[in-house]
Amino acid sequence: MQEFHELIKNFDKIRDYMRQFFVYGFKVRSDFDAKSARTYDNERRRIESWLGDYTCSGYTSKGKHLYISVDGKTIPRNPLYAAWKSKTFTDNDLLLHFFLTDLLTGREQGMTAGEICDSIVTSYGCIFDSQTVRLKLKEYESLGLFLSEKKGKALYYRLVPDLPCEKEMTAGDPETVPGLWGRILTAVKFFQEAAPFGFVGSTILDRSGIQNQFFQWKHHFIVHTLEDGILSDCLEAIRKKCAVRLENKSSRSGKLTVMEGIPLKILVSTRTGRRYLCLYQEESRRFNALRLDCITRIQLLQECPFYEELSLKLGRNLPHCWGVSFGGRSSRLEEVCIKLSIDEKKEPYILNRLYREGRGGEVLRIRENEYLYSGFFFDTNEMLSWVKTFTGRVMDIQCSNQAAVNKVMTDWERMYQMYCGCDSADSGETR
């Protein structure tokens, strides 16, 4: 039987388990049938070891269920970052890490890969293949830990020097670091919860041995930590202006779909904080918005030669998106007109909302206390919840998408029956 390890090689496997435990938390062991029961036990044990203070369990008729319970308004840091800090390593990785940093400490002139190999043998009595050492040196250079400099035909490596402000660190209380570095760390305490700096900031605080004691966040969507790896790949593709191939898993059916397209923008919901990838699909010649938490894997492809043209086209389309939807296959704009009764003297805040939240729609004053809101959008279904916030003030609503009108009218009728409707016989008795 394979031995259980707390550390992981691949984050993709555990991402889904953590999301299920955090977002839902009602599933029992038998509900996780996509993988073996042993896989569930291993992933559950890992999560409990990382998040022991935030994991809870309960019992139903189906059995025991595990869930992650976190109050985002009170925690000083994002506990889900622990998953990103649990990447596995080999014995050689561990040995080389300390050997290389020890050998290069204080050597401002640097050392070549060959000199490092010889020094490892003489100083520590270990033998490593020169290619292994070179690959580790290049890896640490890419991570920003080492610097390389060509001197003649030889390549010398040295440690990245400390920032001037880091030298202000003293042996005293790490919470009272003086000078510029102390002020920087205060800023890090705030930005550790702001993407894309979040995980980097958390790691800096770990290195400095300090905790956030200043800031709390009201709207703290920490579950998005689980998709930050996907976000990083998307941003890299956008920066390089290249196409991607990705796997998208339906949140409803669980069906996995492979698709290709050109990523152009990351859209963020102001209401839920949910993040979307805006993708142009050449096959259908239309834009599409995919939830980041539904993307399981992304692969960068070739550079797109007409990327700038697509960006300009997207800029012309976005003003007609109420949310993230670009409509159906036809991509035709839907017209909506809403007539509202608003008391200008008593309810100026309602009028302000109409202007502020109208997504570029036109607001026309018909007469005193009567206004007409109109606009063209790809999918008017996205605006129905907003329209319902004006319940009691809507005098008339017209839309080229009659199905959307029927939906909101049905909701209003049900609401009326729930709160104002009564049986005729009862009504007669009351009178």
Question: What does the model show?
Answer:
The chain is an alpha+beta fold and 431 residues long. A five-stranded antiparallel β-sheet has the order 8-7-6-5-9. The protein has a four-stranded antiparallel β-sheet with strand order 11-12-10-13. It has a two-stranded antiparallel sheet with strand order 1-2. Strand 6 and strand 7 form a beta hairpin. Helix 5 crosses helix 6. The longest helix is centred in the last third of the chain and has 18 residues.
CATH topology of the largest domain: SH3 type barrels
Tally of distinct domains: 5
Alpha-beta content class:
alpha+beta
Please give the CATH architecture of the largest domain. Answer: Roll
User: How many angstroms does the end-to-end distance come to?
Assistant: 78 Å
In terms of per-residue confidence, which ranges show pLDDT below 50 for 5 or more consecutive residues?
427-431
Number of DSSP helical runs: 14
Report the biggest beta sheet as strand number plus sense, adding barrel if it closes.
5 strands, antiparallel
User: Would you list the SSEs in sequence order as H and E?
Assistant: HHEEHHHHEEHHHEEEEEHEHEEHEHH
Range of helix content? 25-40%
Overall average pLDDT: 85
Strand order within the widest sheet? 8-7-6-5-9
CATH class membership of the largest domain? Mainly Beta
Task: Please tag this protein with its features.
5-stranded antiparallel beta sheet; disordered C terminus; 5 domains; 431 residues
Concise structural overview:
The chain has 14 helices and 13 strands.
